[in-house]
Automatic annotation (TrEMBL):
The keyword NAD does not apply. InterPro entries: Helicase_C-like (IPR001650), P-loop_NTPase (IPR027417), SNF2/RAD54-like_C (IPR049730). SUPFAM superfamilies: P-loop containing nucleoside triphosphate hydrolases. It comes from Acanthosepion pharaonis. This is SMARCAD1. Gene3D superfamilies: P-loop containing nucleotide triphosphate hydrolases.
């Protein structure tokens, strides 16, 4: 079990194991959460509403702990374990209730086919190796009906694998842009060029 799973087990059996649960100061001791401390009050003051995406449900659990410690932040959560018949209700609640400040979503479950234009800030807590999954998540705000400027924030920890992942993702996006622009300008050249590369 991970440290956080052990922490949840201690909370579940609080009467016997409560003293072994993690102190809240340890949960808050994260560079990304310290960045949350800077950004979220500013967004709230400006009347912005926030979508926070993570690839991992356990990370969403930890972010929930952070939000509970902060107490004054209302939020909803949608991930792959959320029953399908409940998802549209959560989306409607967020869109209709301006008092709900944050919507926590998993990148895969919350990144496709839903409209959340009531939010105008997207925070990608942990980036995906496939940049198109993150772009799909960003597009939850970038849809018809959006009236505010949309802010996209990717949180990357310095000197970690995330920096290499981000560079790799940018190269993929650049390659896709170059390939599609080449195809649009001269489709015949594009096809024959790649055919030659494959054959040779």
């Amino acid at each position: 079990m991970s440290d956080f799973e052990l922490h949840k087990l201690c909370l579940l059996y609080r009467k016997y194991l409560g003293k072994y649960a993690l102190n809240s100061s340890l949960i808050l001791d994260s560079g990304k959460f310290r960045k949350f401390d800077e950004l979220l009050p500013e967004f709230k003051e400006n009347g912005d509403r926030v979508l926070i995406f993570s690839q991992f449900t356990m990370m969403l659990d930890i972010i929930e702990e952070y939000l509970k410690i902060k107490e004054d932040i209302k939020y909803l959560r949608l991930d792959g374990q959320t029953p399908v018949h409940e998802r549209q209700g959560l989306i409607n609640n967020f869109n209709d209730d301006a008092g709900i400040f944050i919507f926590l979503l998993s990148t895969r479950a919350g990144g496709l086919g839903i409209n959340l234009t009531s939010a105008n800030v997207v925070i990608i807590h942990d980036i995906d190796f496939n940049p198109y999954n993150d772009k799909q998540a960003e597009d939850r705000c970038h849809r018809m009906g959006q009236t505010k400027t949309v802010k996209i924030i990717r949180l990357l920890s310095k000197d970690t694998v995330e920096e290499a992942m981000f560079r790799c993702a940018q190269k993929k996006l650049t390659l896709e842009k170059d390939v599609t622009s080449c195809d649009a300008q001269n489709g015949q050249f594009f096809s024959s060029f790649f055919l030659l590369r494959i054959v040779s």
